[in-house]
Design a protein that fits this description.
414 residues; 14% strand; alpha/beta; five-stranded mixed sheet; Structural Genomics Hypothetical 15.5 Kd Protein In mrcA-pckA Intergenic Region, Chain A
Length: 414
Amino acid sequence: MNVDVVDVLRERGFVKQCSGEIGLRDLFAKKENVVFYIGFDPTSDSLHIGSLVPIMAMAHLQKAGNTPICIIGGGTAMIGDPSGKTEMRRIMSPIEIEENCLRITNQIKRYLIPQKNLIFANNAEWLLNLKYIGFLRDVGKYFKVNEMIKAEAYKQRLDRQEGLSFIEFNYQLLQAYDFLVLFDKHKCRLQMGGDDQWGNMLAGVNLVKRMRNKDVYALTFPLLTTARGNKMGKTETGAIWLDAEKTSPFDFYQYWINVDDSDVVRFLNYFTFVSRKEINKIKELKGADLRSAKETLAYEATKLTHGEGEAQKARISSVAIFESKTGNLDSMPTIKISQKEINAGVPIIEVLCLTRLAATKSDARRLISQGGIYVNDQKINSLDFVVNGDLVKNYSILIRRGKKQHYRILVEKL
């Protein structure tokens, strides 16, 4: 039975708002299998770690015996969700949306149990063939404009010069309609999502109540920021992606092991399946003792996303760096440069661009001037510094930007 499943989510920090919580708890207590859904926006070819909050919540509920429906928003992506956006999203082509949907579906599958009840759906299936006049008559009549514009997502845009396009104004109706369709097809009773979706989700709850006279529920997750106030998953060089080609398993591991001390317990709750009992023990750790907790966080998060093998390699390479060794660095992002080129010397500015530790040459100069670049752990102070054969150790040269971003030059033998 699922009596305590809402408590599990609350204890791990997943619950920000919940509609009809008493009714939702009763539903979980009465039914062994509650069908619920979360929507994912295919506006990119990869999710980033901010998307792990809904994915992990979904995985916890599935482990408790419930059925997740993963909705990939191929239909709603044709419009674009205005939530949290200061201007209208870029309109994507149907082919681009379809490709993104496929890649995102494959990413989400890594976190869920394929043998258990699991449904994937694309809302393009029912939205793209809607007859607009019929939709307005059957669904649109339940929405009042004066109520819709009170939603935070719409309010923010109406107060700005850019305004809100009519196409975006339709988004709430379509998301609410998703809930109605999933209720009819799968008896779905719960929608979960980020707290910026609260208004859209309540619209779905109300639509099902009005059209089917049944109670359904909405539960939102907090929009996460780090202890330093940064948006979750954002770094100086951009997002931390779930796609290994966009963010290597090594860089993924490094993100977690370098989180602020005050974020460790919170992130263990969100991004791993480490038990609450073990996490409560970690709460007592301080200072250097937290290093082991960060290693657990980094290893468990990387294992879920990239598999145990990649997590092991990332951990070994990370330990080698931490202990100032140049041993097994196989998982570190690497470029190969011939021994002949290294012997001739490669300007540090060119190396930073080759490794993508700097986006441009001017960015490289700025980083060096600010003291943010290290070669083999030695700070580089000169813009004219040259990377050459004297720096090679075990056929490698290690380049570092700040504390967290590492790159290896692998020198190929002649």
